[in-house]
Amino acid sequence: MFYRGKFTDGADGREMGAKRQRMIDQGPLFYGHSPGSSFMYTAPPPHSYVSQPSPFPVVRLRGLPFDCTEADMVEFFHGLDIVDVLFVHRNGKFTGEGFCVLGYPLQVDFALQKNRQNMGRRYVEVFRSKRQEYYRAIANEVADARVSSPRRNAPRAKSSDEAKEPAEHTGILRLRGLPFSAGKDDIIEFFKDFVLSEDAIHIVLNSEGRPSGEAFVEFANAEDSKAAMAKDRMTLGSRYIELFPSFPEEMDDAISRGR
Question: What DSSP string describes 60-84?
């Protein structure tokens, strides 16, 4: 995740997207020093948090394009520290609404300046929200996921590999839909039935050097990567992870684009 400050309960921002459920039972969150946003933002002095808990930094969006992706949200709020993005579904269908958790409470004011600005051809409404609304949306997503097809995922543009035609295994898998917070240790835990080292995991970055939601994993052999496909569309945190057989050239190209 883009935010790397520390919370008073010992968790850091990196865990927020991947461990949403744990947050439901946590108390008020406090924020450390800014990681250096480029959005004309200066972190408030520490004493400003002494008198009362800081408001939870989340905004709600309405009117999102139905092919909206997390990358689109990051671009829409360019310069802000995006901690988590949650798209809202109802009966397995995207509603056009979403939530965006920011790194600091004061960044909410900057996010509200994007109200009624365009994302693609649609203007998007941005509202203040509350921690309880965000948690309620998470709970609804988890409940909906349990009763609907796991093929329902966060909205995204269709790709040529959507049908997942059978492909030859080379020992490399591409992962899509990772939480921005996911690190190499989370991916190792996801594939805990296989022996993987950190050197075998390659998290793809975007042009700004931030996680893109994709990664490549090099398994010991083609048999292991084929067996690992059993994890396709299983959850990491609260997100479904899609797996695709890949090959060295695709991996090298994706990694080089993010450098």
Answer: EEES--TT--HHHHHHHTTTS-EEE
